[in-house]
Amino acid sequence: MALRLHNTLTRALDPFLPLHPGRASLYTCGPTVYNYAHIGNFRTFLFEDLLRRWLEASGYDVFHVMNLTDVDDKTIKGALAARTTLRAHTDQFATAFFEDSAYLRIRPAHAYPRATEFIAPMVALVESLLQKGVAYRGEDGSVYFAIARFPAYGRLSRLDTRELKAGASERVSADEYAKEDARDFVLWKAAKPEDEQVGAAWDAPFGRGRPGWHLECSAMALDLLGKRWGVDVLDIHAGGVDLIFPHHEDEIAQSCAHTGKPDFARYWLHGEFLTMAGTKMSKRFGNILTARDLREQAIDPAAVRLLFFQTHYRQPIDFTDDALAAAAVGVRRLGAFDARLRTSLASEAPGPFDGIAESFVATFTAALDDDLNAPRAVAALFDFVTAGNRLLDDRVPVGVDGRTAWALAGRVLDLVPGPPAVDAALAGWIEERVAARQGARKARNFAEADAIRQELAAKGVEVEDTPQGPKWRMGGVRA
Ligand code: AMP
Ligand code: ZN
Predict the structure, then answer these.
(1) Which of 248, 296, 344, 428 lies most in the core, judged by the most C-beta atoms within 10 Å?
(2) Ligand nearest to the CA of 36
(3) pLDDT tens track for 456-477
């Protein structure tokens, strides 16, 4: 069976047929870098990580883009409050986002476009929409998209006119009277003094200002996709369910009005929320937990991944400490099995281990091909561990199939707990000591070199001398 995905456009499980066989472009709406992303955001980013990894494991050449929204009302407000520039204010949160993503083992996207670095394509897109007559300049100097002039509007969210009106005014601060229709949304906001103050205003033929949030994603996706593969339709566009309307609806309107194509993305995937005591985790509600909170509590990222993957991405998850603690126990079991496998007897001849590996791979593949059914894949993994442990108890050797199956689970779910984290300060100290030892060796001061090696060993750091110079490891893994 081949991959099927739940497409919000059709509200059905559709077979995944990309524009070009073997290739999959994936655009995922990234964080607004005005603060630390919370683990609700990361639930969505982890669902997208699983999607990305499963596409790659299935043999697709994936091109993954995740934007960073670094200009909008919130980032500007933050920069003003911190009395700094937009760039300086958002830089620190962009850096934090990359650290948190790495902590959660999220495979890096191929491009992380920042909105402020794509102003030219955004201006060009607005010009094209003005030229085509689907956009107009409002009385306030801002540019709006006229949704009455785009008949397909509402196809993704399937909302009625009343709901569209309510949604359009939600994230748009502009004066309602400046628009021709209350449902219209802003493409380009006329510059205000506070925008100028933080460096959030740019010249454009239709007036100085800054891009609207929806415009950012359309322009960056089309620009990068065009440069990479020369096409203007995405295979998959993903985000959390709160982005269906108005964000993704508006992205479709802008992009399709510009390209003339019926679709902006062939498949739209939306992940459900992470909640706390039943309420959506959100900065607005003050019920957030950040990835750095978890890191400070020395929570293994594998436990966070397992916690999220135990539930299907289209079902809500209510976060509790107990559920996280249970997931930590679960990944320790996987870690123990991993260690056992590594020291187990190897065999080239077929044996019972191949049998359990084969049935695991079949169940695992069928589960993920079925709209990324991670909970079923995780259950299959634990069944494999139970059966595998029994065989290892009987000293049954592990063949190639067993190891390949385990490696597949590692590549896709990545649930084996890691060694203790090496923070930047510790890594810096280790590097300095390793260099000092190297200096002592060059000076033929072997007693000193040995003393440093022991000093490092006391902290759990092993040094290995290779033809390329010394290499160090901690807990079996290079930092
Ligand atoms: P934002 O930084 O607000 O633009 O959100 C970044 C991503 O996180 C979007 O895909 C949102 O849909 C998603 N998101 C926001 N809150 C939650 C939540 N509580 N649970 C899951 N995803 C969320
Ligand atoms: Zn977006």
Answers:
(1) 248
(2) 1
(3) 887 767 888 888 888 887 654 4
